[in-house]
Amino acid sequence: MHFAYPPRKTSNPPPYLPRSGGTSRLPGLRRSRLKVIALVGIAFIVFIYILTRPSSSSGHGGSTTTKRRAPSGNPPVVLVTVLDEKRYSKAYIDTVKENRIQYAEKHGYEAFFANIHDYDLKNAPPSWASVVATRHALTRFPEARYVWFLDQNAFIMNPRLSLEEHLMKPARLESLMIKGQPVVPPDSIITTFTHLKGPDVDFVLTQDKEGLSSGSFVVRNGEWAEFLLETWFDPIYRSYNFQKAETHALEHIVQWHPTILQKLALVDQRIINAYNQPKQGAEYQEGDLVVRFAECDKIGPQACEIESKRLAQQWRKAFTSS
């Protein structure tokens, strides 16, 4: 007869037990083995703790903490723009820089310019530089409270509006959030959270007529922002050959990763991302913060420069009178 489990007792003693007489060494062996098991267990627990504990950071006094402290907010905002200085004229690039610098100086922000050709994207489309440049800015300005990425082919038109008061102040943001909105319109089954509160939002962007628009977005500095950008920039997504590169990759991860969706707020396009062509999205109106020359780069650099000339006169006038 065979047992599924060994019986509780046996008439044959184990080979390592003495059959008669003498002093058994079993207690000593047990103690030795228990010590080894205990040491291995402690080492395993320490190993798991090191892997899973929050990233540590050093304070001004040099002491190490187990939880990353909130950034001081100096500067409050870093305004990030990726420039293609090989493809566009120097005059156009200088106008874009001037626009960002003047706005940043007015509100005590920092303007961060990256060259699209400075990043090794492993043969991915150049537009992916927007993601890595945003991560680069967080490294350069670890005390910044927010990072605002704004596409090169855009101007800030209303210098009176600060990013905090216009968008990121919790009460203001909560009033602007579009709740229960399909992430990819018109009929995505994944929608923005209906119960999300302003203080819980770490990622703000808009939609246009085709889906998410990644030409202007804001992230709150912190560990979650690093997680977002590292996930977004994952080599797997860069190798997928999405039609709209990083934009379609973002739509994918937002719909498949609740940890990202739960920190995302969509706002009306005119808040930070109005377009100069109404057929592509919400049309810019005087008083809006931003105007983007959406899709002009698909025609060519000259198309962007032509569209920008009239708007450049407008923003300079607005900045002079503010």
TrEMBL record:
Q: By its UniProt entry, which PANTHER family does this protein fall under?
A: ALPHA-1,6-MANNOSYLTRANSFERASE MNN11-RELATED (PTHR31306)
Q: Where in this protein does the record put region Disordered?
A: 1-24, 55-75
Is Membrane one of the keywords? yes
| InterPro entries xrefs | Glyco_trans_34, Nucleotide-diphossugar_trans
Listed name of the protein = Glycosyltransferase family 34 protein
The residues that cross the membrane are 34-51
Among the Pfam families in the record, one is Glyco_transf_34
**Into which family does the record put it?**
Belongs to the glycosyltransferase 34 family.
A GO biological process held by the record: protein N-linked glycosylation
Q: Which UniProt keywords apply?
A: Glycosyltransferase, Membrane, Transferase, Transmembrane, Transmembrane helix
Keyword Cell wall biogenesis/degradation, does the record have it?
Answer: no
The cellular component terms of Gene Ontology attached to this UniProt record, alphabetical and capped at eight, are:
mannan polymerase complex
UniProt GO molecular function: alpha-1,6-mannosyltransferase activity
